[in-house]
Backbone:
């Protein structure tokens, strides 16, 4: 076994690998860029080596610097984690050439599986199901129609040069095919100057399900069930679970067998994942193989009670796999969500900033919660790396138990300082269709076409619970101030929120708040430091998050959020006289929500735009981010040009004064 | 039968309560403004208001004024309570002759101010006045000056707070200007020495009331206003909150307010709040929020001179005044505005026995012609003067940079700081390492590599708190996570602090 390994990664995965290494009594070396000098993985590791500047290309992707760090620290092996250099065959070769061990598959397997075409050919040879389709382009409708009969309807006509949905048509029968094909060809010609199309099986209600495999260098390969990863947005997974609520044991076994066959074909010796697309009829087809540890590996670890990282290290050290396929049986259910710094109310735009409050829930065997994170309070989510904050995994005997625990974990999870998707994830978990296991890869796009903005609950009890805590906070604050001078204590309050205005009575002795005649008896006290209220209202356990400033309280309960304005009742009739003041003059500006490269401007001077319209594209965090207008008006001036680097909050577009535009 | 006098009393009371009449009240409301009495309802504890001089009427007979008398004469005065503690108040009534200030109107204000001085009770003025009562001429001007004189007499004796809730123009601005805090209401208040019409005539500038003297102008640009609020209700609730941090007078201590936030609470986040790169900013407000009692920060001048943070907070229930450099704005440099802002705040806190907590991360004074021509020397000296003069408990914590003269200024040991702590990340030096290397090793200035080496050497030697600690300029180097407890304990030790000043008429602050 190795004495010391280097982890060529950062963030939660680096921390996660270090943790396993520690249990194996292996010393660890972290690497870090300037942006990560204070990061958790650097503090956790026994040693840390600086490898460069914040941009990944100048640090975490710098193979030379990483290998040099391993040599300098005396590490014998390198674990690449995922992303960065994990699927870079050249890196693997370089590591081996330097006399070090790469904790992962061989360079050849990475290379073969890294290429879309060779991997598909190889898979087909190994007996893996491939999406049926024409071999190459077809130009004649009759040929296409004949092929479609073999393939089986519905089929998809796709442009060979295609992308972005252009030149794509679905046909459910031959009539449709005959009508759609020329359209697809025309569109392909118009879009790409190339009218070649091909026909392949259209998988209806597709799901993304993948098989975890584990192989050693002695030819032993097993599979560890599947992971259901259909819930995606922006083509990125947000929720994964094991097992899949959809496939049968028979399908699982068939998929597992094929995955093992494919792994054998490339003499795979590490943890790897074979991804499939699965149709409504449980037909499954090969997508690709990931020759690394997956982000979502924890769900497999929990259900199969295994440490995949430990096995990767053992296998890399030459150990034999002791697991036998027949002994591998799933136990219980695990669901992972990815907490991202992103704004679900604005098209899931990545967010950056400081985690001004960051409190994770307790994790122990009782809570059924596992958290893989690499961030800390006062730490930063920067523009340089993936905006994932943490992975939260709930596990239990049944799917419902796992989901309930995950819900509670998310309710306790306090993240403040930047936009994040906690409540969006919370909403998905409560979605009836999701709860039933009834979803496909288009679930988020279909169910949340406008993203998700937390709002007041429809449930009257939940609303009253949230309001009662808001009143309690304001009332007790005023009470403490009044007590300093033996002043009169206000007990009657007025509150106003999204759901309307109400009156409330606070009873300090009974610790209750009565709202519109409904008595809410509160047990427990809000903790302003952690932002949590963990207690009971009328005997029902609740976990809320609170943010309190003067007369305003923001309360979050599950997927809901309520901003409550609370005032003593005696002044509420005067509050009613207050009116929204129109801001006089002043042009409205649309500003960059994050720093990045402005790649495209989609409006021009004189355009009339409404809030929600796409205005510019900003490239940041390796992603194209579509910025939508927050304002309505006429474009007066464009303040930054395409190709320009913009800073956060930099004005990009100025709209004409409201008065000018009317 | 009711006696005629009682009937008259009732009639006069009713007339006074009606102010300028229903129509004018409706107009006032239509502007989103409350009446003088409605404002007092919010400001004061319920049923605590004792009104004085309800029957005062003006004595002017010129220009048809004899027919225009309304009991109270455009200002409601008296005393009441805020959280059970007495305050004197005057609230100008715009519905009565535009809230204009007559001789008698001024006399009513003077009366409550005189009484406030005698009894050691704060004064809160709610301003909503069109200006001098022109019909009265010099009598009105005299009235203003009588008020000004009281403002000055009361300064440092009792807290004086002004809320601008309507117009406040010309000479009228100087009374609020001499009080301790000015709050303004956005969109319905403005303050200026001369209005837009005069500006237009004299300088040909076209400017609106709002841009010339609105709440945001004064809260952000001029710094005349300490805070701007969205409406009357919020502004008045804000005053109630402010009062909870202040003592009744210079002979008093601020009230203690119970907290369930233990002073032993640790803040692990603080151990990693200072970025590894010394040129990277972090938000000092987060440091403050981890140290003080839960949510107790009441910021003064939140929108003005953001490079320094000033505000009241509580530590273990005790009122404190916090002054902190803000690395997020102009790297936390001291400039003219920051010096003025902090100097006045320090002097207020010192005048009213509120201990000072100073959080230091300052790279120095802002360089440049704008600053020098603007008199940064004199303005910076104000802050230095204020700190040196202050003899309330002074507790200082250096979080990162404390460079050059700015180190001395920011409540250093040498200015009789009582307890001076530093985090391990503190760098107490004459200047940043790069600048120092450039001066000491001028010969190497063309060799960037060598210069970097020199700068690293300087950094290694001086970029820490231990050189200062060795000399006793720092009492201890503390772990950031324990800052709340250490500061609270220092304050507790300082509760009995006694300090005296040399006898003199008064000092001569470099104004």
Residues:
């Amino acid at each position: 076994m190795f004495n010391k390994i280097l982890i060529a990664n950062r963030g939660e995965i680096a921390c996660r690998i270090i943790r396993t290494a520690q249990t194996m009594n292996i010393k660890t070396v972290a690497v870090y860029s300037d942006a990560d000098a204070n990061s958790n993985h650097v503090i956790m590791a026994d040693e840390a080596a600086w490898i460069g500047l914040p941009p990944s290309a100048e640090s975490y992707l710098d193979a030379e610097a990483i290998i040099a760090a391993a040599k300098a620290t005396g590490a014998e092996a390198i674990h690449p984690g995922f992303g960065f250099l994990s699927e870079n065959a050249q890196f693997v070769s370089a590591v081996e050439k330097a006399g070090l061990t790469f904790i992962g598959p061989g360079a050849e397997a990475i290379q073969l599986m890294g290429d879309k075409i060779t991997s598909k050919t190889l898979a087909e040879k190994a007996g893996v199901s491939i999406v049926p389709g024409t071999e190459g382009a077809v130009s004649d409708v009759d040929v296409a129609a004949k092929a479609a009969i073999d393939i089986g309807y519905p089929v998809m006509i796709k442009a060979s040069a295609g992308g972005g949905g252009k030149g794509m048509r679905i046909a459910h029968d031959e009539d449709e095919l005959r009508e759609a094909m020329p359209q697809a060809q025309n569109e392909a010609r118009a879009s790409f100057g190339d009218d070649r199309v091909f026909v392949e099986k259209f998988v209806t209600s597709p799901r993304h399900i993948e098989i975890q495999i584990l192989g050693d260098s002695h030819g032993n390969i097993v599979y560890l069930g599947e992971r259901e990863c259909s819930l995606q947005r922006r083509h990125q997974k947000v929720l994964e679970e094991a097992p899949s609520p959809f496939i049968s044991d028979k399908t699982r076994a068939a998929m597992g067998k094929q995955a093992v066959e494919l792994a054998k074909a490339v003499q795979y010796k590490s943890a790897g994942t074979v991804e499939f697309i699965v149709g409504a009829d449980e037909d499954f087809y090969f997508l690709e193989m990931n020759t690394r540890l997956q982000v979502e590996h924890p769900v497999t670890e929990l259900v199969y009670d295994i440490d995949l990282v430990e096995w990767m290290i053992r296998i890399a050290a030459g150990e034999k796999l002791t697991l036998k396929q027949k002994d591998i049986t799933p136990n219980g259910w695990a669901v992972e969500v990815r907490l991202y710094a992103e704004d679900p109310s604005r098209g899931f735009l990545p967010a950056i900033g400081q985690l001004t409050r960051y409190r994770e829930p307790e994790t122990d065997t009782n809570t059924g919660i596992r958290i893989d994170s690499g961030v800390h309070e006062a730490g930063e989510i920067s523009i340089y790396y993936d905006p994932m904050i943490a992975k939260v995994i709930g596990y239990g005997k049944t799917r419902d138990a796992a989901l309930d625990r995950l819900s509670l974990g998310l309710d306790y999870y306090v993240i403040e300082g930047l936009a994040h998707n906690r409540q969006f994830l919370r909403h998905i978990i409560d979605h009836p269709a999701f709860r039933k296991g009834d979803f496909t890869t288009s679930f988020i796009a279909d169910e949340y076409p406008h993203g998700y903005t937390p709002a007041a609950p429809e449930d009257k009890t939940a609303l009253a619970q949230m309001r009662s805590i808001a009143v309690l906070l304001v009332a007790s604050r005023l009470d403490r101030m009044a007590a300093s001078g033996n002043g009169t204590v206000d007990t009657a309050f007025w509150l106003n929120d999204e759901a309307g205005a109400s009156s409330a009575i606070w009873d300090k002795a009974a610790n209750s708040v009565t709202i519109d005649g409904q008595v809410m008896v509160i047990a427990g006290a809000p903790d302003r430091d952690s932002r949590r209220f963990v207690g009971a209202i009328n005997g029902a356990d609740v976990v809320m998050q609170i943010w309190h400033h003067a007369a305003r309280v923001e309360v979050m309960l599950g997927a809901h959020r309520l901003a409550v304005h609370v005032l003593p009742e005696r002044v509420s009739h005067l509050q009613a006289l207050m009116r929204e003041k129109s801001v006089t003059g002043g042009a409205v500006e649309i500003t960059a929500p994050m720093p990045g490269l402005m790649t495209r401007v989609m409006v021009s001077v004189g355009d009339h735009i409404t809030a929600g319209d796409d205005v510019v594209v900003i490239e940041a965090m390796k992603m194209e981010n579509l910025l939508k207008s927050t304002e309505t008006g006429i474009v007066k001036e464009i303040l930054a040009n395409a190709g320009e680097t913009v800073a956060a909050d930099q004005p990009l577009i100025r709209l004409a004064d409201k008065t000018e535009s009317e | 039968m009711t006696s005629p006098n009682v009937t008259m009393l009732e009639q006069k009371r009713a007339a006074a309560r009606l102010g300028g009449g229903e129509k004018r009240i409706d107009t006032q409301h239509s502007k989103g403004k409350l009446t003088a009495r409605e404002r007092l309802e919010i400001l004061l504890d319920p049923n605590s208001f004792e009104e004085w001089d309800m029957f005062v009427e003006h004595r002017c007979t010129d220009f048809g004024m004899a027919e225009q008398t309304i009991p109270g004469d455009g200002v409601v005065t008296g005393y009441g309570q805020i959280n059970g503690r007495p305050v004197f108040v005057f609230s100008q009534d715009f519905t009565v002759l535009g809230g204009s200030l007559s001789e008698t109107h001024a006399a009513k204000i003077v009366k409550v101010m005189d009484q406030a001085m005698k009894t050691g009770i704060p004064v809160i003025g709610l301003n909503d006045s069109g200006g001098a009562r022109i019909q009265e001429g010099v009598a009105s001007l005299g009235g203003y000056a009588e008020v000004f004189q009281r403002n000055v007499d009361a300064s440092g004796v009792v807290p004086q707070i002004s809320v601008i809730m309507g117009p406040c123009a010309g000479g009228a601005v100087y009374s609020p200007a001499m009080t301790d805090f000015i709050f303004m209401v956005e969109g319905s208040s403005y303050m200026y020495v001369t209005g837009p019409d005069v500006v237009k005539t004299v300088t040909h500038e076209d400017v609106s009331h709002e841009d010339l003297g609105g709440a945001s102008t004064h809260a952000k640009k001029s710094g005349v206003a300490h805070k701007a609020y969205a409406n009357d209700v919020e502004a008045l609730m804000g005053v109630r909150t402010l009062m909870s941090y202040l003592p009744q007078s210079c002979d008093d201590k601020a009230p203690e307010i119970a907290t369930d936030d233990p002073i032993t609470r640790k803040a692990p986040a603080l151990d990693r709040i200072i970025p590894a790169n010394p040129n990277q900013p972090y938000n000092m407000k987060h440091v403050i929020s981890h140290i003080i009692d839960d949510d107790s920060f009441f910021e003064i001048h939140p929108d003005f001179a953001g490079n320094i943070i000033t505000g009241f907070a509580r530590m273990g229930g005790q009122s404190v005044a916090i002054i902190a450099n803000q690395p997020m704005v102009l790297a936390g440099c001291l400039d003219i505005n920051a010096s003025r802002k902090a100097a006045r705040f320090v002097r207020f806190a010192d005048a009213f026995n509120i201990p000072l907590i100073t959080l230091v991360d300052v790279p120095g004074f802002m360089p440049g012609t704008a600053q020098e021509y603007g008199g940064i020397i004199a303005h910076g000296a104000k802050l230095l003067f204020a700190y040196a003069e202050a003899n309330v408990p002074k507790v200082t914590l250096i979080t990162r940079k404390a460079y050059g003269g700015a180190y001395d200024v920011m409540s250093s040991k040498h200015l009789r700081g009582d307890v001076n702590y530093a985090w391990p990340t503190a760098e107490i030096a004459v200047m940043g390492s790069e600048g120092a290397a450039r001066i000491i090793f001028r010969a190497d200035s063309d060799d960037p590599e060598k210069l970097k080496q020199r700068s690293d050497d300087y950094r290694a030697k001086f970029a820490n708190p231990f050189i200062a600690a060795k000399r006793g300029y720092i009492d201890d180097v503390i772990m950031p996570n324990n800052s709340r407890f250490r500061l609270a304990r220092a304050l507790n030790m300082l509760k009995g602090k006694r300090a005296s000043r040399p006898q003199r008429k008064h000092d001569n602050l470099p104004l």
